[in-house]
């Protein structure tokens, strides 16, 4: 897969998740699932990240943090909502402090359901994100060419 | 005197899997004060008890935290069972004990990995997490879920284990114990690990008690206290002693957790040997009326569960005090006077679970 040669970097942020999906995202980077073998690297720095993995719904305090992290990431970028809470709010939807899924705050490209989302599902979501990232990258290049 | 500067730490930080924010007041490289602010993961779960009936709420209680999921479900169920005077069948109590100890193994291995990662010891991180997958595979086999597996219900448990499954569990425990030995040796004897952890964040026994430390934090300061000794579930039938260490530093906390892993293996073996046959749940009739305070030992320390019923299917109040809540004051006092580079490590040694704390 030629598109994987670009080695995208992941950034993970916990919106207001219960940790279940967080530790599954971390488990993806460890030996049994090991997404690093695809060249995907887990970084902690938004300025160097291509894919943003968000777990958990959005509450009033994490809203500004999520927006800030999203704005710090360079274009083109892809957002993956991991877990049912990040998709729609999940079991916490009726809580007074939950606004809903991640898409209430920033645009989401891939939804990975599950409670907790299994590592296989997360990896599948990331692979789908790669295709979207490649498409966005092509569009970005074309725009740049047209502009120049 | 050096000038003071304030360094914001978090909520998004490479070493933190969960968001917590600290304002670190520093003089040069030395932290003179740390001001924590929390609330990034607050959802308002306790209030949901008014919208979900007491049987449905078991699933919400399990989602307070994904790491200590089983324990929260069990703590809540035990509290409601006490209010309703339900006698849980012995087999269910043993099954709960086995799953609780497996959860402790997975939680402690997870913590050891994160500690190694904070030290910059990448291979040790990977090794700890590789072992942890074996426990998760067992959960998957037994219940169908890896981290949140919802087997608790009011009156017992939902799934039974066959003799075959218990045998496999024992085999896996033996495997993990054998593979843990080199990891244990590295954590306890390696020069690199010791040089980062020895003498860091010392908490005296008096301070630990005064500031309300719980769990491995308290035991690492030499205080022999473990809520499992109260004998809930099947712990009353099993033989155990709280594991303590004397030094009260980060190294002692690491040592206590490593030895608790071995203790959990022992408890699982004892429970499997003694597990009685019989039903796994009793039918539940009526609604809870009354109140009860229940406490259990979570991997991170003692947790409290308070329920108050009013005779309807909706509870009046559910209150949860989690171990990290009580470990934050000692953490803040430990941070005073430490070096800026040691801050992530010190935060990790309390094994913070922000999701539990903020709910």
Structure, described:
The complex is a heterodimer of chains A (148) and B (359). Chain A has one domain (2-143): Rossmann fold (3-Layer(aba) Sandwich), CATH 3.40.50.12280. Chain A is an alpha/beta fold and 148 residues long. In chain A, helix 1 links the parallel strand 1 (9-14) and strand 2 (41-43). Chain A is built from four helices and seven strands, in the order βαβββαβαββα. The longest helix of chain A has 29 residues, at 119-147. Chain B is of the alpha+beta class and 359 residues long. Helices cover 47% and strands 14% of the residues of chain B. In chain B, the strands form three sheets. Chain B has a three-stranded antiparallel β-sheet with strand order 1-2-3. In chain B, strand 7 and strand 8 (315-321) form a beta hairpin. The longest helix of chain B is centred in the first third of the chain and has 30 residues, at 90-119. The mean pLDDT of chain B is 86. Chain A binds chain B through residues 12-14, 16-24, 26-27, 30-32, 43-46, 56-57, 59, 61-62, 65, 69, 91-92, 94-98, 115-116, 118, and chain B through 11-15, 17-19, 39-45, 47-48, 51, 59-60, 63-67, 69, 110, 113, 125-126, 129-130, 133, 136, 145-148, 353, 355.
**Count of distinct strands of chain B:** 8
Domain tally of chain A: 1
CATH topology of chain A: Rossmann fold
Radius of gyration of chain A: 15 Å
Q: Quick one: overall form of chain A? A: globular
Q: What can be said about the biggest beta sheet of chain B?
A: 3 strands, antiparallel
The oligomeric status of these chains comes to heterodimer
Shape of chain B: globular
Spatial sequence of strands, sheet with the most strands of chain B: 1-2-3
Run of helices and strands of chain B = EEEHHHHEEHHHHHEEEHHH
The secondary structure category of chain A is alpha/beta
Strand numbers in spatial order across the main sheet of chain A: 2-1-3-5-7
């Amino acid at each position: 897969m030629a598109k994987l040669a670009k080695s995208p970097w992941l950034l993970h942020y916990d919106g207001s998740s219960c940790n279940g999906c967080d530790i599954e995202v971390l488990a993806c980077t460890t030996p049994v699932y090991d997404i690093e073998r695809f060249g995907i690297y887990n970084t902690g720095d938004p300025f160097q990240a291509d894919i943003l993995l968000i777990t958990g719904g959005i509450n009033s305090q994490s809203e500004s943090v999520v927006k800030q992290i999203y704005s710090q990431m360079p274009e083109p970028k892809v957002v993956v909502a991991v877990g049912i809470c990040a998709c729609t709010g999940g079991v916490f939807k009726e809580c007074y402090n939950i606004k809903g899924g991640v898409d209430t705050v920033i645009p989401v490209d891939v939804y990975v359901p599950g409670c907790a989302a299994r590592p296989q599902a997360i990896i599948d979501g990331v692979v789908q994100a790669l295709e979207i990232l490649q498409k966005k990258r092509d569009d970005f290049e074309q725009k740049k060419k047209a502009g120049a | 005197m050096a000038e003071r500067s304030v360094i914001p730490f978090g909520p998004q930080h490479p070493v933190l899997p969960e968001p917590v924010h600290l304002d670190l007041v520093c003089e040069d490289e030395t932290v003179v004060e740390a001001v924590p602010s929390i609330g990034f993961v607050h959802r308002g779960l306790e209030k949901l008890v008014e919208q979900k009936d007491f049987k449905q709420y078991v699933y919400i209680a399990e989602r307070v935290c994904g790491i200590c999921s089983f324990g929260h479900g069990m703590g809540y169920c035990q509290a409601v069972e006490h209010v309703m005077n339900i006698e849980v069948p012995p087999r269910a109590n043993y099954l709960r004990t086995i799953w609780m100890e497996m959860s402790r193994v997975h939680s402690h291995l997870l913590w050891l990995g994160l500690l190694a990662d904070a030290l910059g010891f990448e291979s040790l991180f990977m090794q700890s997490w590789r072992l942890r997958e074996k426990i998760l595979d067992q959960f998957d086999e037994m219940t169908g879920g890896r981290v949140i597996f919802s087997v608790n219900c009011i009156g017992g448990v939902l799934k039974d284990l066959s003799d075959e499954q218990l045998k496999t569990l024992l085999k896996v425990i033996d495997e993990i114990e054998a593979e843990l030995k080199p990891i244990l040796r590295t954590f306890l004897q390696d020069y690199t690990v010791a040089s980062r952890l020895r003498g860091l964040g010392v908490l005296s026994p008096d301070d630990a008690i005064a500031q309300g430390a719980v769990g491995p934090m308290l035991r690492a300061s030499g205080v022999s206290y473990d809520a499992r000794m109260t004998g809930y579930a099947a712990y009353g039938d099993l033989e155990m002693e709280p594991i303590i260490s004397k030094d009260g530093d980060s190294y002692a906390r690491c040592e206590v957790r490593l030895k608790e892993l071995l203790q959990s293996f022992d408890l699982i073996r004892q429970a499997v040997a003694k597990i009685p046959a019989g039903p796994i749940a009793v039918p539940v009739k009526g609604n809870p009326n009354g109140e009860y305070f229940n406490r259990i030992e979570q991997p991170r320390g003692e947790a409290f569960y308070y329920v108050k019923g009013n005779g309807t299917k909706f509870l009046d109040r559910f209150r949860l005090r989690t171990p990290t809540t009580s470990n934050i004051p000692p953490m803040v006092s430990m941070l005073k006077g430490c070096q800026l580079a040691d801050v992530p490590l010190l935060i990790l040694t309390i094994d913070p679970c922000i999701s539990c704390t903020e709910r």
